[in-house]
């Protein structure tokens, strides 16, 4: 890394405020220095008169790895991951060890933006408009678009002057610097199926695109890099790393949150807020901390001997996720001009001294590659009104598959069992292959989160209840079939594209590639696309009673 001082970024790193330098009072205390917390710290500290404290349980990011797009999956299950797992199920995650899916969540300044796939994707126009129609002024598409533009530093030349994009924001957006030629096949295949190749963050969402990334000069642009490093000299902002907020202190009479008990390097301290406490500890730990602080379903808190502050049955409920189906592996014959290393991702082809030199000395090459999602598409399943631009399925196209990495990334992060991997991939190890992964845009199934005990360090119990609404499985199957149809387009057939015929163990009694087979595959190779959320927008204006949030995301009192 001595050649890449830009990655070390020494002058702009965030200094950790030692515990003995923390003040007793701040105007605002932000719990969780992830994507949301980093933005809040930046925006609030624009007001010089306000003192801000940002609390983050993890360290600063280890940029040597996290900055490199090719290393995307490697930080999962590392010390920067809380390493959550779903509770065992007999209906989904069946190909995973102990029937539990991994649910990575980052423990680092910048939060999940430090270990995410860097894909820059906005929500659909109609979703925002629906939120507003449920009684949440300020959340329509026309209202949120200016904020997307304000936050964005669009660096893709053709979009820089586009109405839908901004150039002056903190978060830079670029194309990935390296692509496999297969990415062009995917785009062509989309066109051959009648889709447009377009900016899916622009006027219309339905269509195909090369993935846009939250990248700066080809490297990851985490929320910490985007929003915190540029303001590292603001004197009214303290950032306390390695700091766990263990409890939010709430006055039982006024329901006003007034302080936070923290633990840093084994030392406890209470810090008080003059104005607001902002809870941005992510989708899992925000409800966990609320319940530990006495706000949650009263029976559950009673069972765990947690002192009830406010009976709020909605806390931990309404859990939903963009669930996906893994295992959409298609083999193909690489054109003759490519040697036996093929043209997609192969583990032994990437980590070579040549590629490392190319990266360190010329800032080029496969280190700048995100093979997992080279291209993405938003499409309508059979269940969705196709005249509307409101797709219900997203497809990820990877110039890589579980067999091409020898299981080093994919098997490990998904938690696939050895038996599953052996049955489905061992006979095709390192053969040219690509993946198509369908995921749901608007799942109907709802899960929940519960505490195991009254301690923050004990992971909460996560029940995603994937496919508890059968509609979700039906839509996902349709998404897989659209992916399959794409594999049969003339451009893909030109390379003898064919589905991996090694059957999923547990699904062999179903006719191969029938709807039942696809459904069985989804229930075995169930994948989180890492987007859990719990906010119930329909109730948001009264949700200060349920959730401590209102539509302005003010979190400082329970009753609004
Ligand atoms: C593997 C992966 C891939 C993803 N890919 C994409 C993608 O390509 N594109 C995309 O848009 N989204 C992606 N996401 C989702 C996206 O990154 C998250 O939705 C987003 O980062 C969540 O932001 P947040 O601020 O709500 O939570 P987080 O970013 O999770 O931040 C919460 C922070 O709070 C800290 N914290 C928790 N509890 C406490 C406590 N008690 N005290 C102090 N600190 C605490 C945590 O350590 C963490 O840093 C991905 C997520 C993952 C995990």
From TrEMBL:
What Pfam families does this protein map onto? Answer: GMC_oxred_C, GMC_oxred_N
Q: Which PROSITE patterns match?
A: GMC_OXRED_2
List each copy of the Glucose-methanol-choline oxidoreductase N-terminal domain by range: 282-296
InterPro entries to which the protein is assigned, alphabetical: FAD/NAD-bd_sf, GMC_OxRdtase, GMC_OxRdtase_N, GMC_OxRtase_C
**Which superkingdom?**
Eukaryota
Write out the similarity annotation: Belongs to the GMC oxidoreductase family.
Q: What is this protein called?
A: Glucose dehydrogenase [FAD, quinone]-like isoform X2
């Amino acid at each position: 890394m001595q050649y890449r001082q830009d990655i070390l970024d020494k002058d702009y790193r965030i200094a950790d405020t030692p515990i003995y330098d923390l003040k007793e009072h701040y105007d605002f205390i932000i719990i969780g220095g992830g994507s949301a917390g980093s933005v809040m710290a930046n925006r609030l500290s624009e007001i010089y008169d306000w003192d801000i404290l940002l609390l983050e349980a993890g360290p600063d990011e280890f940029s040597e790895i996290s900055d490199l797009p090719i290393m995307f999956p490697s930080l999962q299950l590392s010390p920067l991951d809380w390493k959550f797992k779903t509770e065992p199920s007999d209906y989904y995650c069946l190909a995973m060890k102990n029937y539990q899916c991994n649910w990575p969540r980052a423990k680092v300044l910048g939060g999940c933006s430090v270990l995410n796939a860097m894909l820059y994707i906005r929500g659909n126009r109609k979703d925002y408009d629906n939120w507003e129609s449920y009684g949440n002024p300020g959340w329509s598409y026309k209202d949120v678009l200016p904020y997307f533009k304000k936050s964005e530093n669009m660096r893709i030349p053709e979009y820089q002057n586009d109405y839908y994009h901004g150039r002056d924001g903190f978060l830079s957006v670029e194309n990935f610097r390296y692509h496999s030629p297969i990415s062009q096949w995917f785009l062509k295949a989309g066109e051959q199926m009648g889709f447009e190749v377009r900016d899916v963050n622009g006027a219309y969402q339905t269509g195909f695109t090369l993935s846009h990334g939250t990248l700066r000069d080809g490297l990851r642009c985490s929320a910490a890099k985007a929003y915190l490093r540029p303001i590292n000299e603001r004197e009214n902002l303290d950032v306390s790393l390695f700091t766990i907020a263990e409890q939010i202190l709430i006055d039982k009479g006024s329901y006003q949150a007034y302080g936070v008990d923290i633990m840093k390097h084994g030392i406890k301290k209470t810090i008080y807020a003059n104005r607001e406490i902002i809870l941005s500890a992510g989708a899992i730990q925000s409800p966990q901390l609320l319940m530990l602080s006495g706000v949650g379903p009263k029976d559950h808190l009673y069972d765990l001997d947690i002192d009830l502050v406010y009976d709020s049955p909605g806390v931990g409920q309404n859990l939903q996720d963009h669930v996906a189906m893994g295992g959409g592996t298609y083999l193909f014959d690489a054109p003759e001009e490519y040697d036996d290393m093929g043209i997609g991702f192969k583990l032994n082809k990437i980590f070579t001294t040549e590629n490392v030199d190319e990266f360190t000395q010329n800032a080029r090459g496969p280190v700048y590659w995100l093979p997992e999602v080279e291209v993405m598409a938003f499409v309508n399943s059979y269940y969705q009104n196709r005249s509307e631009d409101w797709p219900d399925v997203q497809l990820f196209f990877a110039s890589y598959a579980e067999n091409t990495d020898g299981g080093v990334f994919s098997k490990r992060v998904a938690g696939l069992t050895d038996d599953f991997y052996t049955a489905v991939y061992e006979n095709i190890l390192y053969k040219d292959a690509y993946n198509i992964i369908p995921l749901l845009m608007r799942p109907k199934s709802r899960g929940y989160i519960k505490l195991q005990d009254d301690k923050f360090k004990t992971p909460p119990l996560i029940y995603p209840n994937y496919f508890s609404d059968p509609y979700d499985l039906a839509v996902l199957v349709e998404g897989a079939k659209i992916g399959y149809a794409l594999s049969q387009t003339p451009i893909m057939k030109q390379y003898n594209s064919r589905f991996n015929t090694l059957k999923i163990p547990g699904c062999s009694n179903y006719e191969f590639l029938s709807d039942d087979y696809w459904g069985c595959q989804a229930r075995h190779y169930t994948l989180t696309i890492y987007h859990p959320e719990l906010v119930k927008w329909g109730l948001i204006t009264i949700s200060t009673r349920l959730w401590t949030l209102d539509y302005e995301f003010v979190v400082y009192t329970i009753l609004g």
